[in-house]
Amino acid sequence: MSGMLNTLPPGAAAFVERAWEITLAGGNAMWAIWLVAFLMCALGANVWIGMTGSGMRRRSRRAVERWVKDPSRARGAVGRLVKDALGSRCRDAAALTFAEYKADALEPFERQLKIMKLCVGVAPLLGLFGTVTGMLATFAALASGSGGEQTMGDIAKGISEALITTEAGLVVALPGLFFHYYLSRKLRGYQNFLDDAESLCLKGMRSAA
Length: 209
Hints:
- The chain is mostly helical.
- 88% of the residues lie in helices and 0% in strands.
- The chain has one domain (28-208).
- The chain has helices spanning 2-6, 10-26, 28-53, 61-69, 76-87, 91-144, 149-208.
- The chain is rod-shaped and about 90 Å long.
């Protein structure tokens, strides 16, 4: 551990060393909390990068109406979707085009957000588990100790474990909750936009028929 810290800048080395001390003081539950935190952050980052990189951006209703009237002006992922739907010449086929796009592009993000939401709920429960184990260690020290310095050290260690894991669970869960809300709202808004674009396409095809 010390060899790795020597390769880091002083500020980063102090932060890593402090995090390592807190992890050891928190007991086994801390490792599970960090694992959940890593999984939650990885899923959230993957959803955000995927949605941003794939061009999932809402356009104005007026822009979609222009695309429906003149598909050659369509741009972006939704523009291509509108162009393909209008090119099908059949309202059922156009609806199927939108349904296939939603299944291929959106459902993977929905699954990842469900797992992310599970991680948000699990983190404080793991913190509570660490709280219980820490308090059990404290009571065990009180029951078996003779009141000396070692007993007081064991009691302090148990209380420290209980408090650290409780705080760590909340620290992981709260940012994850807000991040999940932001991503879910962004995805839901894009889904509503696609539904609106689909209705405009079907309306335009009905008017042209």
